[in-house]
Amino acid sequence: MESQSRSNVKLNLGCGDDIKEGWFNVDNEKHTEGINLVYDINNIPLPFEDNSIDEIKLYSVLEHLNNPYAFMLELHRISKKGARLYLKYPHFSATLLWRNIQHKRGFSWTTFDHKLMTKRFKTTSRKIKTGKTLKFLEWAINLFPNIYELFFSYIIKCEDMYIELEVIK
Questions:
Q1: ∠ Cα 12 13 17 (to 5°)
Q2: Tens digit of each residue's pLDDT (9 = 90 or more) over 110-121
C-alpha cells in the first residue's frame, strides 16, 4: 500500500472490474488492470495494519463471504475511528439473490442494528433499492422498511441494500 497517502487510505474490497482511482483495489483474482492486490478476503486477518484505513467500499461482497460477522470485525480492526464504510448487498427478497451460485445469503434493513454491530458501527444512511419496474414504490418501502419486510417483501421484491457505516472506537 506504499502508493496510498497515509493521510487518507481507501480500500475497494472485492472490486471486480470497478477500479477506483485513488483507492487501493483488492480482488480475489487479477482479471483486469488496476487491481493493486490479489487476495481472498475470506482469509482473515486481512493484510492491513490496525487503525490504518479511512474508507472502505464493499459492493456486492458480503453475500459471498464465509463469515460476514468475522469479516466485519476485521474491518473494524483495520479502520480508523470515524472511518466510512460503503456497502451494497442483496436484499433478502431479491429475485436474483439465489441465481448466483457464489451467493451465500441475503440481508435485511436491520442487519446492522444488532448490538454486536451497533457498538462498533454507526449507521449514517441506508436505502433499499428496487428494480426499474418497482421504482415508484421505493419511497414507501424506505419510509416504512420494517412494515415492508414483515408484510410485503415476499410479494414485492427489492434488489439491493445500500448502507453507509461510521466506525466507532
A1: 75
A2: 999 999 999 999
**Is residue 145 reached through a cis peptide bond, with omega within 30 degrees of 0 on the bond before it?**
no
The per-residue b/e assignment along 130-139, b for 16 or more CB within 10 angstroms, e otherwise, is beeeeeeeee
Identity (one letter) of the amino acid at 143? L
Q: What is the pTM of this model?
A: 0.91
Q: Which residues constitute the domain of residue 34?
A: 10-167
Query: Which amino acid is it at 169?
Result: K
* Summary count for the chain: helices (H), strands (E): 4, 7
- Strand, coil or helix: 164: strand
Where residue 104 sits, what CATH number does that domain have? 3.40.50.150
Closest C-alpha among 56, 55, 53, 58 to residue 80: 53
CA atoms within 13 A on the CB side of 161: 26
pLDDT in tens, 18-65: 999 999 999 999 988 999 999 999 999 999 999 999 999 999 999 999
Residue holding cell 480492526? 77
